[in-house]
Amino acid sequence: MNANAHPAAAPTAEARRLPVHPVAGQAGTSFKHEHLAAILADGKPKGFFEVHAENYMGAGGPPHRALETIRRDNPVSLHGVCMSIGGPQPLEKTHLARFTRLVERYEPALVSEHLAWSTHETTFFNDLLPLPYTEASLTRVCDHIDEVQQAIGRAILLENPSTYVLFPESTMSETDFIRAIARRTGCGLLLDANNVFVSATNHGFSALDYLADFPLARVGEIHLAGHAEQEDDEGELLLIDSHDGPVADAVWKLYEIVIGRCGAVPTLIEWDSNIPEWAALKGEAAAAQAILDRYAGRRSSDESHAA
Amino acid sequence: MQPDPVVHALVPDYPARFAPALTDPARATPDNVAGPRGKAAVKRYNVYRNNVTVSLINALASIYPAVQRITGAEFFRAMARFHIRKTPPTSPLLFEYGRDFPAFIAAYEYAQAMPWLADVARIERAWLDAYHAADTEPLGNGALAEVPPERLADVVFSPHPAARTMRSPFAAATIFAANRREEPSGAIDASVAEDVLITRPDHDVAVRHLPPGGAIFLAALMEAQPLGIAAAAAIEQVPDFDIGAAIAAMTEAGAFATLYLKGAS
User: Can you give the residue ranges of the Putative DNA-binding domain (chain B) (predicted)?
Assistant: First the structure.
């Protein structure tokens, strides 16, 4: 494997201005400003904190103060939500420049984005929208990831989506598509175990088959989140990737299987609405940490990338 | 593997087929999506419709909490839904969204009984801009004292990045403040005109009333008019305008970043 293409390769030592906080083998949580006081009052260790990049793209003010405070003592993961990597149109250059400035300013331990699109022409839809898996879309996605990685000077982790519809025009499976992206661009992968479970339920495939086919050696981070239940047109279960509750038991089981196979990969508890008290979020992260600790040191397919 | 050159050159069109119905309930489910094994995709696609609309309504609600508190959630969400369909965001930065919302409120049929509501929204939009504005040390109180008295009329201020002013024919700032507090407010006479200064000298955004003449004075200063000209404009409107008190209050509020003397090299 090309050293430059290593998943989420961190900046070189001489380029660093901020303290380095290792993220290997750790559980983390979404960083919400309403938790800041409780987090600061809490003892160490607290794991890593993940932020949505777009929330820190203002010029200044309290968001940057909060992130600077958190970044000083903890590893931070920068998670882009709106780059629209999965769309066919060119990336928005001003947005990529803002993203690059954040990477330079905060020197995050992990940097990730989504296999999805959110902008069409000039309209931003504020959702992670799905794409067909074809040779043409693969080429576009790879071009976009190359462009992002070139701009920020390091590899990103690309997250697998949760989806509710399929595209009959698709010519390859999601896992084949993702594997091809990782091969062509050298990017790492962010495996969202809840997304696997949601999509598997929604489209009637086996989550275990998906994982068996997923390039686990490229995984540099795992996401866990809660989902909600609805019904599809036939009255059957349709799961919604809602990030508004605790991680489901079935997803915990899936997670333990993943960790058993790829070792103690940094794991995020994602919680974005109906946000609970810090103690509840911390409790979910502690549950993930307990599983990580059980499998610590077992990762054999890849060296640790966090130091 | 060499991609087929024809396929490679083709720009995939899936968003053009998928996107239009997201914010238009009158459109049918796109014809390029399906459920698994021949299942329908109407409810499945509606998940995306719902995600888009609800998340954008929530974005407007978080930018305009006082407006929502005044109108109630049901009224607000209906109004926001109309606005989203008419004017969806064009930037992935949601804190930049909703700049056209105050004008939309002003023209909104069902909000005509609350003619001050659009100005409350304008204050909330300015509040969020001040919140995200660049971090700059505001001009200190002592800076003006260092200017020789004979040069005071030539002083030009540069505004602090967070500073905004607004004039309302209604008591928009009082209504705004009353609806950003938890506790219930007393009766407000909405017909009292208010001029407003919004600043963020440090962590917290502050919304203040300006004294009579203060808005004219400050608007001139923020357009880089020298102090003498700004003062003359204010005094023409309000003969007993207290220049010293106004400058001190505005500086204290963090309205300015720097000052310099016009014509000074």
Answer: 17-105
CA A108 – CA A139 distance, rounded (Å): 28
Two tokens at B21?
A: 């119905």
> Does residue A15 lie within any of the structural domains?
no
Q: Report residue A301's pLDDT band, with 50, 70 and 90 as the boundaries.
A: very low
B166-195 pLDDT, tens digit per residue, is 999 999 999 999 999 888 778 899 999 999
Number of domains present in the structure of chain A? 1
Task: Tell me the domains of chain B and their CATH numbers.
Answer: 1-114 (no CATH), 134-265 (3.90.930)
Nearest residue to B52 via CA among A198, A53, A89, A82: A82
- Is A129 within 8 Å of chain B by CB? yes
Q: Is pLDDT of A4 > 50?
A: no
Q: Chain B contacts of A230, Cβ < 8 Å?
A: 43, 47
Contact (CB<8Å) A89/B36: no
Judge whether residue B66 has pLDDT over 90: yes
Report H helices in chain A.
Answer: 36-41, 62-73, 93-106, 135-152, 174-185, 193-203, 207-213, 249-262, 278-294
So what's the pLDDT on residue B72? 97
What ipTM was predicted for this assembly?
0.92
B48 Cβ under 8 Å from any chain A Cβ: yes
Q: What is the CATH number of the domain that holds A178?
A: 3.20.20.150
Instruction: Name the residue with tokens 């699109």.
Output: A117
A170 domain residue, yes or no:
yes
Parent domain of A197 = 21-294
In a domain, A14, yes or no: no
pLDDT tens profile A180-208: 999 999 999 999 999 999 999 999 999 99
Q: Confirm whether A9 is domain-assigned.
A: no
Contacting B residues, span 161-200, partner chain A, CB-CB under 8 Å: 161-162, 200
